[in-house]
Amino acid sequence: MYILGINAYHADGSAVVIRDGELLVAVEEERFRRIKHWAGFPTKAITRCLEIAGVTGTDIAHVAISRDPKANLLRKAAFAVSNRMKVANIVNRTRNLRKVNLVQEPLAAALGVSRKDLPPVHFVEHHPSHLASAFFVSPFNDAAICAVDGFGDYVSTSTAFGRGNQIEMLSRVTYPHSLGVFYTAVTQHLGFPNYGDEFKVMGLAPYGSPEFTTELRKLVTLEADGKFSLARKYFRHWDEGIEMEWEGGLPTMGRLYTPELERLLGPARVAGEPLTPHYENIARSLQAVYEECFFHVLNGLWARSKNPRLCLAGGCAMNSVANGKVRDQTPFRHLYIQPAAGDNGTALGAGYYVWNQILKQPRGFVMDHGYWGTEYPCADVTAIVEAQNDPGWSYTLERHDGEEAVCRATARLISEGNVVGWYQGRMEWGARALGNRSILADARRADMRELINARIKFREKFRPFAPSILEEAMDDYFVGATPDPFMQQVYPVRPDKRSVLPAITHADGSGRLQTVNQHTNPRYYRLIKEFELLTGVPVLLNTSFNENEPIVDTPEQALDCFLRTRMDVIVVNDTVIRRRAVV
To answer: Where are the domains of the chain?
Structure first.
């Protein structure tokens, strides 16, 4: 039985195909549209899923969509009436829900079938989709589950308990209260207005001091049983409404905060203005207060579940700094976060919700790696390289015979200070590059972070990079870490190793590590091992293969990114292409 799961008419559109409980493919629409966080109906993602799975639309037995327009209708109506919500706000939300209700037409077109031949379509509520994406692919037979985000189907935070193939809901926090809205509102105040900019603030926070925690605590009240509420005077979304666009391209969101926030924290920063210590301190304070609230929710969940295993999902589960502190700040001992914890992952969750929760099929699949996307094993970029007509650069192309040779050659180039675009195997699922669509460099070089931000990524100088480390070496370099193949947790770098790895050590001495083992990615493991044999250090600097765009999908996109930036080398499968300036 084949199940198609999709996230539609929401940011981070995506699709997955599951066969008899086993995941075959999971991809995000942005990779094909080349627009970050693409919102709308994921036609291209569905098409690629069918191609990779080797099926047609007629083979799909069930379709699961991670939205339910009928969810929480009474709550919505009661809130709109009691709070005199503006008509424009209601119309905006209704328009989006209508598109979800009329999904049959674009779905039939994407599957290549008539509307009357569509398989059963299941509308799975947003938060149950998040919860399912966290638990049903985890290695745990039973666990506490928590999803925290902005909003989805009127809910911002949910807790549950999973056992076997069933999830039991425990609690919900509903509109207008949301930790995601809290974090996003202050992110906007800091001059980062684009959808998804919260991760920039998380990267900025280590440069500041928590001098505004008293002020920011006024925005959120912590309540009994892990609940919380927002101080509404600081937020616009609940009465005025905010401008949102969720279809046909880049998702947008209007200003969330009111003038009261500026009276509390001072004038908002205009995008592009210098990041003074004042704003760095607000960023640090925001992260600190968010963590207080997040752990309050989790400790409330622990009190109800008393289970040492925790699965996390939702956009806030991408806050890797908070994730790395879960074991210190709560009684939970074991943590699982799949690589697409945000809204992209709801396609995965909706699919498994149907397979496990609705159809009551047994579990058997565990997601222990993130390589579920497209693959181009026969790619040949020779013609593109040979066609380059730039007198300032010369190019050399070498083909290596097998994994050992290409890894050894690439490791040597990295150890010599070259920045390498590494393009291998199946594309990653989720926001993190995990060693198949990565830009790699030597983490021992203190200047490498600034060099890559300035010459390749063209982004703010404070933005950090992640270390990929051999799993067996994790304890030698990090304090209190556990294996994490998905780069979802930040841990302290051991004090004696910070000078060894300056390019990946954050301003506060931490690093967002990815552990690599031989089972889940043998080629990437071999590359890091070859680097260790040359240098004695089993760590590479790893950042996503892109430049202010979605992570590259095709070899041609990878080569285009290489040519328009200042990378020194690109490795496509077994071919190494090196660029040198002509003197």
So the answer is: 2-139+341-358, 173-333, 382-581
Q: Collect all residues with Cβ–Cβ distance below 8 Å to 482 and sequence separation of at least 6.
A: 327, 335, 474, 489
Beta strand 166-174 pairing with 155-163: antiparallel
Strands 489-492 and 510-516, by their bridges, are antiparallel
Nearest to 160 by CA among 182, 138, 181: 138
**Under a CB-based contact definition with an 8 Å cutoff, are residues 93 and 121 in contact?**
no
Residue of 579, 369, 387 whose CA lies nearest to 483: 369
CB-based burial label for 442 (10 Å; 0-12, 13-18, 19+) = buried
| CA pair distance 573, 487, nearest whole angstrom | 23
pTM across the whole model: 0.95
Of the pLDDT bands very low, low, confident and very high (cuts 50, 70, 90), residue 329 is very high
* Average pLDDT, integer, range 277-290: 98
String of DSSP letters for 263-293: HHH-SPPPTTS---HHHHHHHHHHHHHHHHH
Same CATH fold assignment for domains 2-139+341-358 and 382-581: no
Strands of 121-123's sheet in order across: 22-28, 14-19, 2-7, 60-65, 121-123
Question: CATH topology for 382-581?
Answer: DHBP synthase (3.90.870)
Q: Which residue has the tokens 């841990």?
A: 491
What would you measure as the largest C-alpha separation in the chain, in angstroms?
Answer: 73
Distances (CA, A) of 375 to 38, 40, 155, 326, 473: 21, 24, 36, 35, 29
Q: What are the tokens at 393?
A: 């650069």
Distance of CA 334 to the CA centre of its chain: 20
232 in Cβ contact with 177 (< 8 Å): no
Alpha-carbon span 337 to 135, nearest angstrom: 9
Euclidean distance between CA atoms 223 and 300, whole angstroms: 10
Right CATH number for 2-139+341-358 from 3.30.420.40, 3.40.50.10310, 3.55.50.30, 3.40.50.620?
Answer: 3.30.420.40
pLDDT in tens, 166-190: 999 999 999 999 999 999 999 999 9
CATH topology of domain 173-333: Nucleotidyltransferase; domain 5 (3.30.420)
